[in-house]
Amino acid sequence: MDPEQKTEPQLAEANIPSPPTERRSWLLAGGLALIGAAALAAALLFGASSDSSQRTPPPIVAVATTPTPSTTSVGGAQGSPTPGSSTTPAPSARSTGTSRTGRSHGAIVAHPSAKQQYLDASRFIDQTQTHITTRWMEGFYPIYATAQRTFGVNWLLIASIHRQESAFSTASDTYTGLNFAGCCGGPMQFNVTNGPVPTWRLVSNSFRYGRRPASYDHPTAKHPSIYDDFDSIMAGAHLLSADGATYRLDVGAWNAAYDYYGHDATGVTYADQVLARAIGWSQHGFCINCGTDTALVEAIHAAYGAPVLAALTTARAARARR
């Protein structure tokens, strides 16, 4: 018999199992697909709600009233301790001179010239008119909230200094190099050259006290870094707290802003603008690109800045006579 003829019936009669039905596989695949879809929907739902909570500014802790000279202690602005303030503030972030308490700060910008101070004052105004997108700001909100919670400083004051120093980190030199004076850098413009211990080194490890957000715009590979948004903003909040700032936007906040820049006429202008912006936000809501109310700046100056500026003028005249 032909071998092929023998093989054929054997194959036909062999006990070959039927191919398995694909129904079970399709049911299993469909079930897994449904589970996966449900998990993805849940992740998107909860993720979106989590993200949305970080995409909006933190709640405003208190609405500040506009100060008036008649209700303000002039002595407080010149150095008398106020509730919650520090009697021995840390060195200022930027400038030179003697603190309100008489404590001498190390030279930071090496006695800036009149031209440098003019340029600095102009920069404060120019940077507040930069158009900044809502998307850009979203990464800063959880940082502000963490800094406020960690150091007990009103986040509006922190944000106002962030805007004053680097226009919310949009200034061209925010993440590289140092400023025009060759001393300070990063989102909060910390000094890295004054001494014997630079201001940055005094508070550079402040990031360790709070939980770092999972994501933000400019994380660095190594910490601490003046160019890392979280590291820098946490350090700024720490320094403000050391200089007497609290949740209140009052004379203590003005003093802390004045200490942050330094003790000269430009520092007075700086503190007036920083506090006026923060108070305006507390009264009308946080606004990224809104200008600072001139009337509010004038009120802040009359209540807090003018007495300090008068003392600076008197001291300058006394030195000139010697």
Give a verbal description of the structure.
With 322 residues, the chain is mostly helical. It has one domain (69-321). The chain has 12 helices and 2 strands; from the N terminus they run H-H-H-H-H-H-H-E-E-H-H-H-H-H. Strands 1-2 form a two-stranded antiparallel ribbon. The longest helix has 32 residues, at 23-54. The radius of gyration is 30 Å and the shape is globular.
Question: Brief description of this entry?
Answer:
Helix content is 52%, strand content 1%. It is mainly alpha-helical and 322 residues long.
Uncertain segments? 1-20, 43-53, 72-91, 95-111
Distance between the termini: 133 Å
Alpha plus pi helix count:
12
The general outline is: globular
How many domains? The number is: 1
Order of helices and strands: HHHHHHHEEHHHHH
Helix content: 40-55%
Which secondary structure elements does this structure contain, and how are they paired or packed?
Elements: H1 3-13, H2 23-54, H3 74-78, H4 114-127, H5 134-138, H6 141-151, H7 155-166, E1 184-185, E2 190-191, H8 199-203, H9 229-242, H10 251-261, H11 265-284, H12 294-321
Antiparallel strand pairs: 1-2
Helix pairs in contact: 4-7, 6-7, 6-9, 7-11, 9-10, 10-11, 11-12
Q: What are its keywords?
A:
globular; 322 residues; disordered N terminus; two-stranded antiparallel sheet
